[in-house]
Each structure stands twice: as structure tokens, then as C-alpha cells.
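Deliverable D2.4 — example input (C-alpha cells):
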């Protein structure tokens, strides 16, 4: 009788896990390194431009998930009017709304990405991140979260307007996340996954991602479908394409300088 009861409990738990679904909302922010020099540039103008750039990196994302699949995409928002600084300067970053699909059971992902107006569909294998589980815990909302870290090599890209060139610097960084076993799925925002619980917070270099809302087991069934459309490439190919497109953009805009002002923008980790 006891063995039958244990079997029923395990079987019921498996069914619950299979039907487990939810939607998590995340807010992301990024620190910005902006340095501008010129005869008309003041500290107040540089501060104003930095705030403009920071707001453009403030985004809201939705992660829809079942036990083995997830779909991570940026929420659409109303466009804000273009407002120049007191000196007439304005910085605007063109950013696409990429869609990321992950299938943890099949160890694959697909990402629809716009590269300067051309649509690509990146398809590649999903590599398990090398997480180090830490002892620290903290609360995020109503959930108890555990800390995990990983190290990775990243490339920091600096754009210099004087030379209209980008300078790459490669270094090692630590990614810190907080996950909760109270939500028993191995998903997380962006390419963060592979832990025994949903990832609610990410500190990835100068970018932070924090979960602001979670809805578990909604009444309506969540259908998760991989994105469609775009030229199919793998991850290595899209990186080469991005570099080529950036070079093309620099060549097109190199003849437009000559206003006596210069600036550098750092992106990456």
C-alpha cells in the first residue's frame, strides 16, 4: 500500500511539472560610459546626453515559459519625442526587438535578430552555462533566491568618433544571478538558464535585469513557438555579419564628421 502511495505522489508530481507554465516580466538597465569633447561641450550637456542614452537602454521584457521551452522578447512601447540637449546634440541608438526561443530538452535555441535593417534567424545548439552555486540567499518579492555565478570571456567595444573606428578589448567577467527553486524550471532572461529554478535577477557587467512580476499557471494555455522569418545562420556567422555591417555603417558616416566635437561610447560587458 505504501509503495502504491509513493508511486501516485511521484506520478502526480511529474504531471504537475509537465503542465507547469508561467509568464515573468523583467526590467533591464545598463550603465553608460559616454565621453564627449568639443568647444561647445559642457558638463551639463554631457550629463544630459548620458541620461538620454541610459533611458534608451531601459527596457521591459517578457519571458513566457513551460517546463522545457521559453520565449524571451522585448515589450513594445510608445516612441518618445526626440529631444536634443541644450547644445543641440542628440544621441539615438538604433535597437531591434530580438526574439529568443530556447528549448532546454532539445538543447537548442533560435533568435530572430535585425542587423541594420536586415532580418536574420540565428539557429544553434544550447550550451550549458558553467554555473558555480553559492551559499548566499536573498528575497526577491515573495521568493527565496539562491546565488550562482559564472565567468566568461567578453569583448568590450569602444566607438571613437574622431577616427570613426571601433576598438575591441577582450577580458574576463563574472555574471551573477539569483534563482528560486520555488519555480521549478531552468529558464531565465536572455541566454541565462540551466539552474534548478527560475532566474529572477542578473548582474551581467554593466547590465542588470530584474524580475518585476510573475504569473504562474495562468488559466489560458501558453503556446510557445519559435520565431520565423529571416536568413538562417549560426551564432558564429551572425557575429561576422555584425562586424561587417558595423564597418559599412562607419564608412557611410565617416564623411559626415567635422563639427569640432568628438565622442566615445563603450558597449559590451
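Example output (designed residues):
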Amino acid at each position: 500500500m505504501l509503495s502504491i502511495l509513493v508511486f501516485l505522489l511521484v506520478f502526480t508530481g511529474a504531471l504537475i511539472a509537465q503542465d507547469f507554465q508561467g509568464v515573468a516580466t523583467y526590467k533591464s538597465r545598463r550603465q553608460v560610459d559616454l565621453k564627449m569633447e568639443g568647444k561647445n561641450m559642457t558638463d551639463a550637456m554631457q550629463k544630459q546626453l548620458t541620461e538620454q542614452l541610459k533611458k534608451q537602454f531601459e527596457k521591459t521584457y517578457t519571458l513566457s515559459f513551460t517546463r522545457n521551452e521559453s520565449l524571451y522578447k522585448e515589450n513594445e512601447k510608445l516612441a518618445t519625442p526626440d529631444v536634443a540637449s541644450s547644445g543641440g546634440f542628440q544621441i539615438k541608438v538604433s535597437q531591434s526587438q530580438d526574439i529568443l526561443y530556447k528549448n532546454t530538452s532539445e538543447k537548442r535555441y533560435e533568435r530572430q535578430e535585425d542587423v541594420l535593417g536586415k532580418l536574420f534567424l540565428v539557429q544553434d545548439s544550447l550550451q550549458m552555462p558553467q554555473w558555480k552555486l553559492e551559499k548566499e540567499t536573498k528575497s526577491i518579492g515573495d521568493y527565496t533566491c539562491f546565488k550562482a555565478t559564472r565567468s566568461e570571456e567578453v569583448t568590450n567595444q569602444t566607438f571613437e568618433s574622431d577616427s570613426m573606428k571601433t576598438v575591441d578589448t577582450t577580458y574576463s567577467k563574472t555574471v551573477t544571478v539569483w534563482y528560486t527553486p520555488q519555480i521549478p524550471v531552468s529558464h531565465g532572461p536572455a541566454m541565462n538558464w540551466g539552474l534548478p529554478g527560475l532566474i529572477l535577477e542578473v548582474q551581467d557587467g554593466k547590465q542588470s535585469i530584474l524580475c518585476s512580476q510573475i504569473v504562474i499557471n495562468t488559466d489560458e494555455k501558453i503556446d510557445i513557438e519559435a520565431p520565423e522569418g529571416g536568413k538562417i545562420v549560426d551564432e558564429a556567422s551572425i557575429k561576422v555579419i555584425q562586424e561587417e555591417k558595423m564597418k559599412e555603417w562607419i564608412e557611410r558616416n565617416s564623411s559626415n564628421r567635422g563639427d569640432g566635437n568628438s565622442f566615445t561610447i563603450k558597449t559590451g560587458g
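The chain is about 20% helix and 45% strand.
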